[in-house]
Amino acid sequence: MINPNRHRIKKTMKQILHIISSPMGNYSHSIKLGNAIIKQLALKHPGSKITERNLVNDNPPYLDSAHILASFKNEQDISDEEKEKLGYSDTILREIKHADIVILGAPMYNFGIHATLKAYIDQIVRLGQTITYQADGTRIGLLADKTVYLAITAGGSYNNEFNPVNDYIVNHLSAILKYIGINNIKSLIIEGTKRPGFTVDYDEICRNI
Ligand SMILES: Cc1cc2nc3c(=O)[nH]c(=O)nc-3n(C[C@H](O)[C@H](O)[C@H](O)COP(=O)(O)O)c2cc1C
User: Which ranges carry the Flavodoxin-like fold domain (predicted)?
Assistant: First the structure.
């Protein structure tokens, strides 16, 4: 039977990409926060499609000279070997370009993001794909029209004098996202996950997103 609401669902449905960078699986607070964000978004946008990119299970390769040299070449000059080198980057670029909403899980490890997330960022910032230069030399980001929710978790609780969550995660990720054209960025932060007796209501945090 044809669903009479199908046109409405088609209109509201979104492509949602959940990027995971915690190695902690079922124990991960950033994954649970990301899932709570998705639960809330699914209520707002019925019929949405969710894709998961787990950077810990499937590690992004580190940039090397072959990758960097290939990434600056014109499409027609790229050899088959170089195409293969850029394969991972091509795949994740297709994925993020297709997404309307991105949930970027960013647990704090040693005052910064997990190494897999840094490697992922290095693979998506690419000339001609996510950034380009206009005739007058102005640089523009190409991934406009997306919303990114940062799902940030840290074991400690920080004050204004020393705040690595803001300084090394929110500011760093926001700078990168703006660089590639994404300006609609919302941060959801859970601090103190390693404090004795820590509990959290993930759904409550996401209620008003
Ligand atoms: C190797 C390691 C390094 C960590 N470094 C920090 C840190 O620098 N600052 C902090 O507040 N918490 C730190 N933590 C605690 C994590 O931020 C905390 O466990 C958080 O919940 C991680 O997110 P996740 O649960 O999604 O993995 C560290 C934990 C581990 C295992």
Answer: 14-195
pLDDT for the residue 160: 82
CB 209 within 8 A of CB 150: no
**Ligand 1, atom 9: closest residue by C-alpha:** 111
For the chain, the distance separating the N- and C-terminal CA atoms, rounded to the nearest angstrom, is 34
CA angle 144, 148, 150 (to 5 degrees): 150
User: How do residues 1-17 score in pLDDT, each as one tens digit?
Assistant: 667 666 666 668 999 99
Q: Is the CB of 116 under 6 A from ligand 1?
A: no
pLDDT, position 10: 64
Indicate if ligand 1 lies below 6 Å from the C-beta of 115: no
Give the tens place of pLDDT for each residue, 72-112. Answer: 999 899 999 999 999 999 999 999 999 999 999 999 999 99
Query: Which residue segments constitute the domains of the chain, with CATH numbers given?
Result: 6-206 (3.40.50.360)
**What residues in the chain have per-residue pLDDT under 50?**
none
Pocket test for ligand 1, best of 29, 109, 116 (most atoms within 8 A of CB): 109
Distance 40 CA to ligand 1 centre (A): 25
Question: What is the rounded CA–CA span in Å between residue 182 and residue 196?
Answer: 37
